[in-house]
């Protein structure tokens, strides 16, 4: 719901998506998207990752079943239940890039996870130890530097793209499209 709402509210983003998605339709008699292209599309990946940062806040229960542990200056007894809020990590201003306040962490920024080799202020983190894909390459999706600060799916193993998590292993065919959807 968060992603759909954000796309509907942002005319520029909606227009860019329509243009990009039109290029991903397979050439046949039915309207069918090329899933290989969709699952690698940097903006779609960034929007999905931002949805998991901004729109999904959960409390993750954990315990230390084998021994007491120290967290900072607090001692947690063995088998004692701890609860971690993803909201705290997802809004940590010491980690996340806000482009000098123009994209605050309490707002949705679709391009937050995009690194533009031509823009040193791009990317999800304030630290700029990003690997680049060439000096003049296109923007690319990255979660580099977010270990412990971005906790999608409660920190459990997950598939890296929205298309795989939703569509695979099913074949996705769109047979009815609202009038004007692919028009600017």
SSE blueprint and pairings:
Layout: H1 2-9, H2 11-22, H3 35-38, H4 42-54, E1 59-62, E2 69-71, E3 74-76, E4 82-85, H5 86-90, E5 114-115, E6 140-141, H6 162-167
Antiparallel strand pairs: 1-4, 2-3, 5-6
Question: How would you characterize this protein structure?
Answer:
It contains six helices and six strands. The chain has helices at residues 2-9, 11-22, 35-38, 42-54, 86-90, 162-167; strands spanning 59-62, 69-71, 74-76, 82-85, 114-115, 140-141. Helices cover 26% and strands 10% of the residues. The longest helix is centred in the first third of the chain and has 13 residues, at 42-54. It is elongated.
The unreliable regions are 157-184
Average pLDDT works out at 79
The percent range for helix content is: 25-40%
Number of strands: 6
Biggest sheet statistics: 2 strands, antiparallel
Task: Report the structural category.
Answer: alpha+beta
- Our estimate of the beta-strand percent is 5-15%
What is the string of helix and strand elements?
HHHHEEEEHEEH
> If strands are numbered along the chain, what order do they take across the biggest sheet?
1-4
Shape category:
elongated
How many helices does DSSP assign?
6
Give the N-to-C terminal Cα separation.
Answer: 23 Å
| Computed CA radius of gyration, to the nearest angstrom | 19 Å
């Amino acid at each position: 719901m968060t992603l759909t709402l954000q796309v509907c509210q942002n005319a520029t983003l909606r227009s860019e998506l329509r243009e990009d998605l039109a290029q991903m339709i397979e050439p046949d008699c039915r309207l069918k998207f090329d899933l290989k292209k969709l699952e690698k599309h940097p903006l779609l990946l960034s929007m999905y990752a931002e949805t998991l940062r901004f729109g999904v806040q959960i409390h993750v229960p954990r315990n230390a079943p084998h021994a007491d542990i120290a967290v900072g200056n607090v001692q947690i007894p063995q088998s004692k239940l701890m609860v971690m809020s993803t909201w705290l990590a997802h809004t940590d201003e010491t980690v996340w890039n806000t482009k000098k306040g123009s994209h605050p962490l309490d707002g949705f920024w679709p391009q937050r996870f995009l690194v533009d080799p031509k823009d040193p202020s791009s990317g999800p983190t304030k630290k700029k130890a990003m690997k680049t894909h060439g000096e003049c390459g296109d923007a690319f999706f990255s979660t580099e530097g977010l270990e412990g600060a971005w906790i999608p799916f409660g920190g459990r193993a997950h598939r890296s793209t929205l298309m795989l998590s939703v569509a695979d292993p099913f074949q996705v065919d769109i047979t009815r499209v609202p009038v004007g959807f692919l028009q600017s």
